[in-house]
What we know:
This protein is of the alpha+beta class. The chain has helices at about 20-25, 45, 55-70, 75-90, and strands spanning about 5-15, 25-40, 95-100, 115-120. Strands 1-2-3-4 form a 4-stranded antiparallel beta sheet, with helices on one face.
Amino acid sequence: MLTHTLQIQQLRLPIFIGVKPKERSREQLIDIDTCLTYAQPSLGCSTDQLKDTICYSNLVKKIISCTKSMLYHLLEHLAYELHSLLTSIVEKRAKISVKVTKLTPPAPNIFGGVGYQIKTL
């Protein structure tokens, strides 16, 4: 069985996030990874027309708009908000995955960041 997935990887955005006020006082870089998976191909696979598929540029613009308008305490909440946003935009038959990664968490010896992921099963 084939699946068809649109991925946006390492969308790096400055976001106000953190539990403590000092941490939230400055923007921090967060990587956002999204996957939209379908059992059936989009019509764009055969027509080669943007109008027949999901425009990832539009998705990115909406993600940026969502993150610019909020102050977040937790990665979990940020991931939930982004998953909800994508759920409201894309077709119901899509399985959606959102992962957010804080690149420089305020904890010693973590060099690959700390992330949280939400997936539609």
